[in-house]
Fold this sequence. Notes:
This protein is of the alpha/beta class. 38% of the residues lie in helices and 9% in strands. The protein has 3 domains: 31-117, Chitobiase/beta-hexosaminidase domain 2-like (Chitobiase, domain 2); 123-449, TIM Barrel; 496-542 and 579-685, Alpha-glucuronidase, C-terminal domain (Alpha-d-glucuronidase, C-terminal Domain, Alpha-Beta Complex). It has helices at residues 2-16, 44-56, 92-107, 158-173, 193-206, 221-224, 236-252, 278-290, 313-318, 379-386, 399-403, 434-445, 451-463, 472-498, 529-533, 559-564, 574-577, 592-616, 623-655, 670-673, 678-685, and strands at 35-38, 63-69, 80-83, 86-89, 115-117, 123-127, 178-180, 212-217, 258-261, 295-299, 329-334, 358-363, 414-418.
Amino acid sequence: MKKHKEIIILLFLIFSLEAEDGHQLWLRNQTIKHVKIVCSGHSATLNIARQELKQGWLGNAGEEVNLSIKYDKSIKGDGYKLDDSGVQANTDLGILYGVYELLRRQKSDQTAKDIISNPSYELRLLNHWDNLDGTIERGYAGYSIFWRNEKDSLTVTEQDKLLWQEYARANASIGINGAVLNNVNASPRMLAGENLKKVKAIADVLRPYGMKTYLSVNFSSPAVLGGLKTSDPLNKEVIKWWKDKVKEIYSLIPDFGGFLVKANSEGQPGPQDFGRTHADGANMLADALNHYGGIVMWRAFVYSQKENDRARQAYAEFVPLDGHFRENVIIQVKNGPVDFQPREPFNPLFGAMKKTPVMPELQITQEYLGHAIQLVFLSTMWEEFFNSDTYQQGAGSTVARCTDGSVYAQKYTAIAGVANIGLDMNWCGHPFAQANWYAFGRLAWNNKLTSDEIAEEWIKLTFSDQLENSNSRDWYEQFLLPVKELMLQSREAAVNYMMPLGLHHIFAGHHHYGPGPWYAPDIRPDWTPPYYHQADTNGIGFNRTRTGSNAVAQYHEPLCSQFNDPETCPEIYLLWFHHLPWDYKMKNGRILWDELCYHYDKGLHQVREFQKIWDKVEPYVDKQRFTEVQSKLRRHCRDAQIWKDGCLLYFQQFSRRPIPYDIERPIYDLYDLGNMDPLTYKKVIE
């Protein structure tokens, strides 16, 4: 009888949950309770703060909340203070951020008083890799929310404005205060007058939510768009062209933020085309922007075939220029020295540039981590990155402290995330990909938050009110805890089934999705997987020690010596820095080949466990999102199997060793089949 009753309750819960498309993100409406708001100020931003309180208040009905703009030296920038009376800040925007924090704490069952919260970074930006034709480079959630490939692409509809407003609201709720509206591989047409008018329309919608607009610019714009004979940054006509263009922009958008520049990288034009330095190019643009308070974010993502190890090039090009940049230039640096890999050591530029502001660039869109198909919570990667110690000013000189102004005095502090946002109804393509947008904003505001805190917060905001009448302890234990653990393990699982122990960039082709450790003859040599994994009959891994490319020398001691010695190098980076024999003994006593096999197998089984966890929480999730995640996890599991089999079968031709008996064997065991050439391996996997 009891079991029969439980089944009835279970069926009731499943069918009573309303379907949700995920469009509301973590800002889903609650039961509205009356709240008395006291605020003497008047502005568009304060009006938003009032409205958010009215539609989201979960405190006592009729309670009075004061929104007080009153200077307090303990509050920095757009920070805020929460106490029994309400929210206090130095700015209108600080009030809005404080209101969002108050509501977030109410919904996630956290105390909401006696709190002072100041942002870790002054500038907290999303980089949209959106093109003027509406496509998005590395976009996995549909077309651009800003641009579209239509004859009337420059028109602005009410639907556009509503969408941009929803976008701005979501960003403001997690403290993001800027957006670069177009691809770093920028078209010169971005600066054409008709496009700037649309940028103005976007800026007008984002402004009340505290978001500034920025643009990526093509360094050849003076020649391509302006008709000049050159784009040399020291040419007087070029300098004047940029000054005139900047003046035009600010006449339309008085609070325009500035430029993001990708130069002399992957074929993009830059100052080196004219025998000039990165500093020459950045400073020319900085001078044009300085009068208006604008900044230049100059990307350090550079590499060429001349460098025998592309992991070294950014450091080699930029460290000699430290101190040569204008004060409104910030060097934007990817978290790792290669390219947003599932795991990399931190880029050695962090902490090494002591006279020039450096801002981290993180990738929210999952270019190398399963697109919008695989469930991978990126906060754990970013937490690992922030907590990495550079030792540049002694122990404790973490990446976080070297970039947020704690170690080096700098005029600006900033951080950027490459957005995963598109026109898909749920914005991000995968319901759990929303958590990465959320996590970036929360860490940009407070780089000391833990992934555990962020994951629990996001789950409560995104799912909790679905079962208001159910037992809360049951919901916490049966839903929140297992789903949180799934999220926290997901990035490590991806590393395991893709590229464990420091392997990197062994993807098939340009899409960076499936495995491809075999040689790809249609791709330049320094992009091919064999360039990175260096597998041969002697062993595997990239030698970056003092006897190899000497990339270890770019790290401050004791890291240099630690990374240089395989006995002291952290095993998570072992094959990043070392080429080691297949029978190299690991710390747990296994040989390297066996350890690789166990990691690949573990990753696959972790994803299978994710499927089981999600199936069990069906009663606690609306049918639409449950089914969508379930379907994606099936594909995720299949693709993890392909990663494991593809990599182990390929590497087995070099190791010439059997798969350990106690792990699941691939479809083929090439130890039995004999050697195959790389292209045959590719055909077997396909």
